[in-house]
């Protein structure tokens, strides 16, 4: 009798108009996102097709599409990876301080300041990086050239500071709030029983964080890092303002180098014909690259999803 009543109650709850409306809206929203994504992919592919069938000499640089796009991909990836390497440990450290070390309102104030960075327009970051940050890095680049010039990355320092490394460091500042916010929220969700159990077994606070908090928060940190990487891969104005465009070079402290977003931003307004298709084609490459990064991040998170507060 009890079983029948429960089944009837559940059946009645499913048939409520509000539940049906919410379920339909959720499914519709998910399908809409997929349709938009498919529409973007179809548009980029259709508009980029003329490039793949064109004479290689008619493509920018005169050596075919691959010769044109790979320096842009390399510059984009190098800048984004450097930004992620610099920003991730700092962001995780800030998140741990806010969630487990800060006392009173100190953590809230620091978290608020970090969150404010996300509200700063990228153009402002670009102007700051060009006018203020880049000149201050020139002596550091000179030191790198003098002491580490035998490494191709530091072979020749720029006299203006408008380099790929400068752009990468500015990108690191821009993605810092994203990684910090996600990591902080994940660390705050760590089950108290896990933390108390570690402390009860004689662990120090850092040992407790290392054995209980970081393993629990690892999927969230990875997710936040990938969100930041996605922002870095697609950043346009800040990089376009800071970089002094030129041929690709592995030297990150020298003038030159370009990224896909900056190449599109600087050339799209005046592009037409095959040149327009070229820019759309490199946009398609960036789209595929970003999608691959997010799928890889999803795979990593899924592999660690078995660890949760319920284990």
From TrEMBL:
<dbReference type="InterPro" id="IPR051124">
    <property type="entry name" value="Phosphate_Transport_Permease"/>
</dbReference>
<dbReference type="InterPro" id="IPR011864">
    <property type="entry name" value="Phosphate_PstC"/>
</dbReference>
<keyword id="KW-1133">Transmembrane helix</keyword>
<feature type="transmembrane region" description="Helical">
    <location>
        <begin position="65"/>
        <end position="98"/>
    </location>
</feature>
<dbReference type="GO" id="GO:0005886">
    <property type="term" value="C:plasma membrane"/>
</dbReference>
<dbReference type="GO" id="GO:0006817">
    <property type="term" value="P:phosphate ion transport"/>
</dbReference>
<keyword id="KW-0812">Transmembrane</keyword>
<protein>
    <recommendedName>
        <fullName>Phosphate transport system permease protein</fullName>
    </recommendedName>
</protein>
<comment type="function">
    <text>Part of the binding-protein-dependent transport system for phosphate; probably responsible for the translocation of the substrate across the membrane.</text>
</comment>
<feature type="transmembrane region" description="Helical">
    <location>
        <begin position="279"/>
        <end position="301"/>
    </location>
</feature>
<dbReference type="InterPro" id="IPR035906">
    <property type="entry name" value="MetI-like_sf"/>
</dbReference>
<dbReference type="InterPro" id="IPR000515">
    <property type="entry name" value="MetI-like"/>
</dbReference>
<comment type="similarity">
    <text>Belongs to the binding-protein-dependent transport system permease family. CysTW subfamily.</text>
</comment>
<keyword id="KW-0813">Transport</keyword>
<keyword id="KW-1003">Cell membrane</keyword>
<feature type="transmembrane region" description="Helical">
    <location>
        <begin position="20"/>
        <end position="45"/>
    </location>
</feature>
<feature type="transmembrane region" description="Helical">
    <location>
        <begin position="163"/>
        <end position="182"/>
    </location>
</feature>
<feature type="domain" description="ABC transmembrane type-1">
    <location>
        <begin position="73"/>
        <end position="297"/>
    </location>
</feature>
<feature type="transmembrane region" description="Helical">
    <location>
        <begin position="110"/>
        <end position="130"/>
    </location>
</feature>
<keyword id="KW-0472">Membrane</keyword>
<keyword id="KW-0592">Phosphate transport</keyword>
<dbReference type="Pfam" id="PF00528">
    <property type="entry name" value="BPD_transp_1"/>
</dbReference>
<dbReference type="GO" id="GO:0005315">
    <property type="term" value="F:phosphate transmembrane transporter activity"/>
</dbReference>
